[in-house]
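Handout, page 2. Input:
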Amino acid sequence: MSTGNPELFVVCKSCGSEVSPYITECPYCGSRLRKRAPKIDRDGRVTERKRRRPPTPSLPRLRRGEIPGIRAESRPYATIVLVITGIVGCLLWRTSAVTIGQIAVFEKPGSHWWRLITSSFVYSNTGYAFITLGAIAVFGWLLERRHGPLPVIALYAVGAVGGTAAAAAIYSVPIALGGGGGALALIVAWAIPDVISLRRRLDIEGDLLGALAIGIAVALMPLVVPTATWIADLVGVLGGMAVGLPLALSEPQ
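Output:
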């Protein structure tokens, strides 16, 4: 017999009879020889089916600081930029590098519209800077974890820059420094989901009383800091509600 020819018989393990290699059951005793008919190649040889191994699942390499199965949280870059810029603005005019009138709103800005932006990062009082930048750091970070950097930037722009612009438009001789309005916008936007949960008689995870205390401290700064303004505070609260409510309603329940 040539090596290229198929086997003529196979032996049944149950009855010992020689049977055809092309059948699945023994015709003498009915025992099962194989699950399916054998595959025959072009030369007429019986070939066994090869079982394919399922692909081995693989995970990407862990980055530094990651735990297996848990992705590391991204850094709150927008919040970091806002806080660092506020610290730089607080120190810049104190080092006599520039005068405060060059970067802050002490009169109608006119063609110097960019002062509406830079003025929100300038603080003439260390306590005001500490409380406001602390609130921005905490609630900006919490919001950035929840929604990403763009809502944080938008809330600060509405509260701080928008509040400074409103003060410049309302007051005949406007004096508006600092990001109090921006801090209040962030606090209000962060608190809205928990307020909604309380109205629905649901449990909350945040500290609303702590947020209220920090918000009151920021809002009362105009009583002790002449360069802080009630107009910016009001714009910050309204802006936080206007931006924070849609964000809260878009969150999965």
